[in-house]
Design brief:
Layout (H helix, E strand, L loop, with lengths): L2 E4 L5 E2 L1 H9 L8 E3 L1 E4 L2 E4 L5 E4 H14 L1 H13 L3 H10 L6 E2 L16 H4 L5 E2 L4 H18 L7 H9 L7 E2 L1 E2 L5 E4 L29 H5 L4 H9 L6 E5 L2 E5 L6 E2 L8 E4 L1 H10 L11
Parallel strand pairs: 3-7
Antiparallel strand pairs: 1-6, 2-8, 3-6, 4-5, 9-15, 10-14, 11-13, 12-13, 12-15
Helix pairs in contact: 2-3
GO cellular component, one term: membrane
GO molecular function: glycoprotein-N-acetylgalactosamine 3-beta-galactosyltransferase activity; nucleotide binding
Pfam families: Fringe
């Protein structure tokens, strides 16, 4: 084998884009690449996102095993039994033969179509992997790839922008009720607001109300918590805001485009919307879009 590709059961992989990527690389060089993660002092390719080891890199590791024999096996069995993660162990072993991870994000990455931030960092890059994907989503992505190959052949990669246009664009052209679109760059809420249905989608609460007393916010920011329409106005008044999310007493605004997910539990009435003209302007601003294969 020229290449060894590691993925997990909930990884969706584009064989088209993977094969086109590997054609650009030399398996006779000791290569190890994937989406970077860190545990302690070890930088490794995240297994759920997928990682790739070249034949030359694997042979270097095999050479070490042949040299050390039983001691090699005993050493790594012990280390593996004490570690949480097999992907981290692979990196530690490869480091011993001087093969270090080449970060390959965002070609290889760990988000889903629903959670990824659709930004300039991704837009013109071929999409190789997705993580935390359900069996149904894997099947849907496979059908998308098959349709792409049937139309364009095996020499034209599809980019993140193509995935966006196929899976996301149609769903964000309307406002959605009982929907969390993961807006998280501005967070406004009344001090008396009860528990939120979308609190778990916001990773950092330290910047609620921009760190100010609610009464010190701009007028449109204060009004944003009163209604979905006022939340939309607050987004409109911020030049780089592309989406918003509201429930009684809370408004969240986002710079990046995200699809998000349905949220019907609790009956809190979370609503989400997107600034259509800004979403369209964003896509147009990145044309013409040439495949970006750079990593490392």
């Amino acid at each position: 084998a020229k290449w060894f590709v590691y993925i997990e059961a909930d990884t969706s992989i584009s064989w088209l884009n993977l094969l086109l990527l590997l054609k650009r690389l030399d398996s006779n060089k000791p290569l190890y690449f994937g989406a970077q993660n860190v545990i302690g002092e070890t930088t490794f390719g995240h297994g759920g996102s997928g990682f790739v080891v070249s034949n030359a890199a694997a042979k270097k590791l095999e050479g070490l095993q042949q040299r050390d024999g039983k001691a090699f096996v005993e050493k790594w069995e012990k280390i593996t039994s004490e570690s949480c993660c097999g992907d981290e162990i692979v990196a530690r072993a490869l480091v011993e033969v001087n093969v270090h991870l080449m970060p390959a994000w965002p070609l290889i990455q760990g988000e889903t179509v629903a959670t990824i931030d659709w930004t300039q960092r991704h837009w013109c890059t071929p999409a190789v992997t997705w993580h935390h994907v359900s069996p149904n989503e894997i099947d849907t992505m496979w059908k998308f790839q098959k349709g792409w190959v049937d139309e364009k052949g095996w020499k034209t990669p599809y980019l993140y922008k193509d995935v966006f246009q196929h899976f996301v664009d149609q769903h964000i052209r309307v406002n959605r009720t009982d929907w969390i679109n993961i807006s998280q760059d501005w967070k406004f809420e009344k001090p008396s607001s009860a528990d939120s249905s979308f609190e778990d989608s916001v990773s950092d609460h330290s910047d609620v109300n921009r760190g100010k007393p609610f009464s010190k916010l701009d007028e449109d920011e204060q009004r944003s918590v009163n209604s979905f329409d006022e939340c939309a106005v607050a987004c409109l008044n911020k030049e780089d805001c592309k989406q918003y999310m509201w429930e009684p007493g809370r408004c969240r605004l986002g710079r990046d485009i995200r699809l998000g997910r349905s949220e019907e539990k609790g009956g809190m009435g979370v609503r989400s919307g997107w600034m259509q003209d800004r979403v369209e302007d964003f896509g147009r601003s990145l044309e013409p879009c040439q495949p970006n294969w750079k990593f490392g």
